[in-house]
Design goal:
Blueprint (H helix, E strand, L loop, with lengths): L1 E5 L3 H5 L14 H13 L3 E6 L1 H9 L6 E4 L12 H8 L4 E2 L3 H8 L1 H10 L7 E4 L14 E5 L13 E2 L2 H15 L3 E5 L5 E7 L6 E10 L10 H5 L1 H4 E5 L2 H17 L5 E8 L5 E7 L10 H8 L4 H19 L9
Parallel strand pairs: 1-2, 1-3, 3-4
Antiparallel strand pairs: 5-8, 6-7, 6-8, 9-10, 9-12, 10-11, 12-13
Helix pairs in contact: 2-12
Length: 335
């Protein structure tokens, strides 16, 4: 079977003048090479397609694929992660990872929190601020945590993300609205331990493959898991396996959120404890980073003895099983 690969290369956008933080979520050639090599080792043929514009050109020229392995994050708008899935849906081409609806909902942290809360998954109280005037409707107790509603890889998060009084809240929200040109999530600050949970599978077939606690040195953005600390994680961040009752609680919350949001095949759920040790949902990454060395999902998988090729294999097994069981149309000769 031929597997098409869609992705966004970071260097391509840097050469066009984008700032490093703007393209922080995009991929390196090492990631694409590792995915490609793993798929070939698993017996698949591969064809590199590229980003959404490359996909449009390929589709217009008549190209089709039995399935596409999509890790393209997109760059513009709150529907950026949904662009390629929506295109592939239009052409009835199956693909790995979540569909366009899930990609839109999960990228918007406020929408994601509203959905998981409706399903009974614990998450901190929050408000979404679209303009500075909306702050008059924010009646949450301090301290609070603020971040762009559609950011990833710690974008917009730093030592100033924790705010303790109204003046700092207003200044912080104004800064984020101006810099990132998207709404800001304001939520109750959770002071406890932070975790990330790796999941493979879909629906009732989804399962936890590993989890780790994230500990950031207080010298780096006051211990906040920020954009800077993620870029320099070797110097300021340590990861620890989670066991016992904490692991059970993390797995329950993570799987509850994963299933509530309709996530598919593989990804990560980020969690944090409050001061009393109760685990809360933070956000989900339904298309988690797959750099073989530096990305959280491969790191936590290695902690459980799962090597990179095996991880890619589990993700593909989930996708192929899902497509077969759904009877999804695989005719790629659509004009």
């Amino acid at each position: 079977m031929v597997v098409g690969l869609t992705y966004d290369l970071k260097q391509r956008y840097l050469e066009d003048g984008y700032a490093p933080e703007d393209v922080a979520e995009l991929d390196s050639p090492e990631t694409i090479d590792a995915i490609d090599a793993s798929l070939r080792s698993l017996g698949y043929e591969t064809e590199r397609i590229g980003n959404v514009k490359d996909l449009v050109s390929a589709l217009a020229s008549g190209k089709r694929w039995p399935v596409v392995f999509n890790i393209a994050e997109g760059l513009h708008g709150l529907c950026r992660e949904a662009q390629i899935p929506a295109l592939l849906d239009a052409y009835r081409i199956p693909y790995v990872f979540s569909d366009s609806l899930t990609m839109v909902v999960t990228l918007h942290k406020g929408l994601a929190k509203s959905v998981v809360r409706e399903y009974g998954v614990p998450t901190a109280d929050y408000r979404v601020v679209e303009r500075i005037e909306d702050l008059v409707r924010v009646h949450l107790p301090f301290p609070l945590f603020i971040k762009p509603v559609g950011g990833g890889t710690g974008m917009g998060i730093d030592a100033h993300s924790i705010v303790h009084e109204p003046t700092c809240l207003q200044q912080g929200v104004e800064r984020l609205l101006s810099l990132h040109r998207q709404p800001v999530l304001v939520e109750t600050y959770l002071s406890g331990r932070e975790f990330t949970v790796g999941i493979v599978g879909t629906g009732e077939h989804s399962r936890v493959v590993g989890m780790m606690e994230i500990v950031v040195d207080t010298k780096s953005d006051h211990g906040v898991y920020s954009y800077a600390s993620k870029q320099q994680y070797l110097e300021c961040t340590t990861y620890h396996r989670v066991e016992g009752a904490d692991a059970v609680q993390c797995a329950e919350v993570a799987l509850g959120a994963w299933r509530a949001l309709g996530c598919r095949d593989g990804g990560r759920v980020d969690l944090k404890m409050d001061g009393r040790g109760k685990v809360h949902f933070l956000e989900v990454n339904p298309m988690a980073g797959l750099h073989p060395v530096d990305s959280d999902l491969p790191i936590l998988s290695r902690m459980e003895g799962i090597d990179y090729e095996h991880l890619i294999g589990m993700i593909m097994d989930s996708a192929i099983s899902r497509l077969d069981s759904d009877g999804e149309q695989r005719d790629t000769a659509i004009a």
